[in-house]
Amino acid sequence: MRLAGRRILVTGGASGIGRAIGARFMAEGARVALLDKAPIEGDGVAIRCDLADTAAIAPSVVQAVAALGGLDGVVHSAGVDLLRPLAEMTQAEWARVIAVNLTAPMLVSQAALPALTEAGGGTIVAIASGAALRPLPERTAYCAAKAGLVMFCKSLSIELAPRNIRVNAICPGIIDTPMWRASWEGAADPQAELAMILDRYVIKRVGRAEEIADAALFLSCGESSYVTGAALAVDGGRTFH
Amino acid sequence: MSTRRFEGKQVAITGAANGIGRATALRFAAEGAGLALFDIEAEPLATTASECRTMGVDVAAIPADLTQRAAVERVFAGIRTPDILFNNVGQSAREKSRLFHESDPDTWRFVLDVSLTTTMLVSRQVVPGMRERRAGRIINMSTESAFYGDVGMVDYAAAKMGVIGFTRSLARELAGFGVNVNVVAPAGIRTRAHDRLPRAMIDMVLNSVPMGFLAEPEDVAGVVAFLASDDARYITGQTLLIDGGRWMI
Predict the structure, then answer these.
(1) Residues of B in contact with A166 (CB under 8 A)
(2) Is A147 helix (H, G, I), strand (E, B) or coil?
(3) Which chain B residue's Cα is nearest to A167?
(4) Considering only CA atoms, which of B19, B26, B1 is closest in space to residue B11?
(5) What is the interface pTM, i.e. ipTM, of the complex?
(6) Domain covering B10-242 in this structure, CATH number
(7) What residue ranges do the domains of chain A occupy?
(8) Cα A152 to chain center, whole Å?
(9) Which CATH class is domain A7-175+212-234?
(10) A158-214: per-residue pLDDT in tens?
(11) How far is Cα B206 from Cα A122, in angstroms, rounded to an integer?
């Protein structure tokens, strides 16, 4: 039980990686609050919140902290993808990707900071992307937001180290989530698209959400006690970071 | 530590007598692994092995100079292929360190042998069995110097960057065989080597570490255990710094 008694907030907890993180953390003894705009099933404190709605974030975090009776950790897992050539991208599309992937982690962290400080320390883990380390075509907004998220974590880790709060990022490769399936199933030749994606990875399979949850657990528990400001690639050997 | 993730696993650790090697051996022992421990220093190696045995695991303590090919082949012929290999052995030239223009090629050879060639020699013995078994974990030891250089230690930095290149190439070769290969790169860890540094230098390091303290060898052992565990099964070819936030690359 590596998270026994820890109180942790997970954004994007309704599906995919966030859902796997919530389940894994609870199995390791944590009390978990899940934030998501979609309906949240299963155990844990469920809080509906659209992370693109900046005004809704702080009250939702306060609600989570109250429900958990304090806070020892945050996992920023909510994210949105956008495959769009620059020439076709609207400003609203760009703004939404930046809002959910970058601005929301900032606002959630800011709202969580008093509780983490009061707890005497804690952990913040952001689910960034391999796209933060190596670019992908036609994903300018996504790559920029995720690279921004990694550097946000690095900068914040310096700021929060005196408060005994460690801040790290995980950079997943392809993970079998609804978001990932949507990225290739709509292609003209989905199987060819999938083969092209897999060809980038030395471990020739798609990753599982549970494998990202395992890494988030590592970065949220004492096993990583001297690791902060890191960007850990969990990507089946793509970035060789 | 209540989890025992390595019951039934065999772990080989080089440079296991002291510091990070010792702490990692104790960590794996606490989690139930059988151990094959190697070091050139027989006496402290025996002490570490005894400490591990108190946790109820089988431990072979094997004194050896792993810079010597014949010695590596001999000692690894005597054990079964481990499930996990931690290539920890390595060191700088310490008191023989010199600025490059004053340095002695014989010193480079020693540093390259102990900090890079040994990792390759030991891996060479273990990889065929891991390929055949289609499972395995190799964790190699590098250092912050590989990325940022170290005045007076060009040989050490070169060797440790060599470890990273070796790791990435081996990770590509072995990915299809269920064998993951990764690197840990610690900095600011309290070990014997660190304790020999002048106080002013330790203070300078401390000032550059956001977390504000030097870590213990156990802080590295935790990361090695993670990379060796099933939790890291989708991680290969990576380098993970354990440095209290000093470099953040």
Answers:
(1) 211, 245
(2) helix
(3) B245
(4) B26
(5) 0.83
(6) 3.40.50.720
(7) 7-175+212-234
(8) 13
(9) alpha beta
(10) 999 999 999 999 999 999 988 788 878 888 898 998 888 899 999 999 999 999 999
(11) 21
